[in-house]
């Protein structure tokens, strides 16, 4: 296994891996590999948009030193489980609105103590802000028309001043009619109005079509 620019992420050939926090356990049927006395879980970019971002070429400083994460749209926990591997000592708050998706997420959290699931609406961060405090990393993957506005409100409420953010913008959840490029421009403009600097924009095709990752950082970051 070869370390990458992102601490805790490894490569072997074309594959991306994290060191398994619970050796012997799979979360979504992923491949397990043993190297140098440790077990690693393959991080499937077709199942995880964050893995797709890494494979497509994320910034080397994608995330800061992480103590607290706010993850919006945890679903069944595929990507969340790899964040659990990456930061075993962090507090990873996972917001999920759907009760049906929350049940397996809660089961996963029972096996991984650094996951803290919240059955809540990401559009109302004031309802969980007291639990989360200030996050070092804000990650959002919710399929709603006002995705960018949700991200801005959560950043305003819960993101530390020097924190980083990753918005997985699902173009077709915003509109079925306008070109993807126009939707991404509008998303960037919404973030800018909220005081967030977009320092990287990455199209996630072919792994996740109609998705673009927008990476934000402190206001002093260089816009690309």
Structure commentary:
- It is a single chain.
- By secondary structure, the chain is of the alpha/beta class.
- The protein has one domain (44-217): 3-Layer(aba) Sandwich (Rossmann fold), CATH 3.40.50.
- Helices cover 29% and strands 30% of the residues.
- It contains 7 helices and 12 strands.
- The protein has helices spanning 49-56, 78-86, 99-111, 129-132, 147-158, 171-174, 180-193, and strands at 2-3, 9-12, 15-19, 32-35, 38-42, 68-72, 91-96, 115-119, 135-140, 159-170, 197-203, 211-217.
- The strands form 2 sheets. It has a 7-stranded mixed sheet with strand order 8-7-6-9-10-12-11, with helices on both faces.
- Helix 5 runs parallel beside helix 7 (180-193).
- The longest helix has 14 residues, at 180-193.
- The chain is globular.
- Mean pLDDT is 91; it is low at 219-224.
């Amino acid at each position: 296994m070869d370390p990458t620019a992102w601490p805790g992420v490894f490569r072997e050939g074309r594959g991306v891996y994290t060191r398994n926090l619970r050796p012997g356990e799979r979360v979504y049927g992923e491949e397990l590999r043993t190297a140098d006395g440790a077990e690693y879980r393959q991080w499937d970019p077709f199942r995880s948009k964050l893995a797709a971002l890494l494979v497509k070429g994320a910034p080397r400083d994608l995330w800061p030193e992480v103590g607290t994460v706010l993850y919006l749209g945890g679903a069944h926990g595929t990507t969340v489980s790899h964040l659990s591997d990456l930061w075993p000592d962090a507090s990873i708050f996972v917001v999920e609105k759907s009760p049906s998706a929350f049940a397996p997420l809660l089961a996963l959290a029972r096996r991984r103590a650094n996951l803290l699931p919240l059955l809540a609406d990401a559009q109302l961060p004031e309802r969980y802000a007291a639990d989360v405090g200030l996050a070092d990393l804000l990650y959002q993957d919710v399929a709603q028309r006002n995705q960018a506005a949700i991200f801005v409100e959560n950043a305003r409420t819960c993101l530390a001043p020097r924190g980083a953010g990753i918005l997985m913008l699902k173009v077709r959840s915003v509109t079925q009619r306008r070109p993807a490029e126009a939707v991404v421009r509008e998303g960037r403009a919404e973030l800018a109005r909220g005081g967030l600097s977009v320092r990287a924009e990455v199209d996630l095709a072919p792994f996740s079509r109609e998705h673009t990752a927008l990476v934000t950082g402190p206001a002093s970051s260089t816009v690309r």
